[in-house]
Specification:
Layout: E1 7-8, H1 18-23, H2 34-51, E2 56-61, H3 64-73, E3 81-86, H4 89-100, E4 104-109, H5 118-127, E5 133-137, E6 139-140, E7 145-146, H6 149-157, E8 162-166, E9 185-189, E10 200-205, H7 207-215, H8 225-233, H9 243-259, H10 261-281, E11 285-286, E12 296-300, H11 307-318, E13 320-321, E14 323-324, E15 334-337, H12 344-360, H13 369-382
Parallel strand pairs: 1-13, 3-4, 3-5, 5-8, 8-9
Antiparallel strand pairs: 2-10, 6-7, 9-10, 11-12, 12-15, 14-15
Amino acid sequence: MHIKKQRLLTPGPTPLYPPALHAMMASDIHHRTEDFRKVYLACLAGMKEVMGTANDVLIFSASGTGAMDASVSNLFSKGDKAIVCVAGKFGERWADIAKAYGLDATVITVPYGQVVSPRQVEEALAKEPATKGVFVQASESSTGAAHDLRAMGQAVAKTGAIFVVDAITGLGTMPIDIDGWGIDVLVSGSQKAFMIPPGLAFMAIGPKAWKFADTATLPHYYFNLKKEKKSGDGGESSWTASISLILALGEALKYVQQIGMANLVENAQMLAKATRAAVQAMGLELFAPSSPGAAVTSVRPPAGMDSGVIVKEFRSRFGAVIANGQGSMKGELFRIAHIGYFDFPDLFAMLACLEIILNANGFPVKYGTGVAAAQEVYASAAVKPKSTAAA
């Protein structure tokens, strides 16, 4: 009751991997030395491995939005036709970036909680055969929904356009085959599945996209893909690197490589499945039931209750931070993340807290209901009953 450990249950930043945090303390090295080059090259190689791609991988000292910005400013020209898929706040960010750089964007918008279908993308491409780029979120963390990247990628690959995916919360929480699904640009960030603080953005960029860089005319300076590729090949960043975060990334990548990217994804998927089962057992409704992602589960509060009440109660009672809805969704949903350095004991504890909060605010839930539902999911996946010997 009196000691409260702060717990991050948000879709970013996420809980930190302790060895990565310790590695940051060795950041008193220069970024133009052989010691740093070894670490940087190892990080670039490690990112390629965990992303499962033969494409080039770049690292920027920026939030994931920096890499989103770079994918537009380096690969397109003013007036280029684009298709932007908007299913939440981060889809709206793609639309804002496209508008800022003067692209002629067709925006496909669906209600929050739903996703843009591959068929909608196919139809938009057919109407605009001159389209140069299609932009989408892998995982729309503002609503908890996930897009069908495979089918979308197949549709885009038949055209001259490139497929640009924001996988900032998608990478490490859902299967993504960059090369096999025709993803020409994939963006991610450090503070999600990679379990380190915010401040690094990652970009995988394929041959089709690199050709676009040869003809693009939009202005850019700091985010320069060609310059960053040349610098990275030599083991350096183009500008002063975020040394502490690169060191942290090196440790986090060792951990991801140790457990395997597929197992990191499975961990998030099972946590998400258990969370959905638990909140529904409590009598709550999912905000995105038809296409749920595994980075975060979005939940509607009980009728008549503002979701901000639940968010505040997590903080005041238990020192835990969960996310409210964003923009027009504020008060309409709360978001429970299960991404990165997060395990089932974390989930069991969080669900027990939620049951207490709901009861304290007039929504009766039998204690243990949600926890039991999550335990069932865990047990069915990970517990093999021992056979008892005959007496």
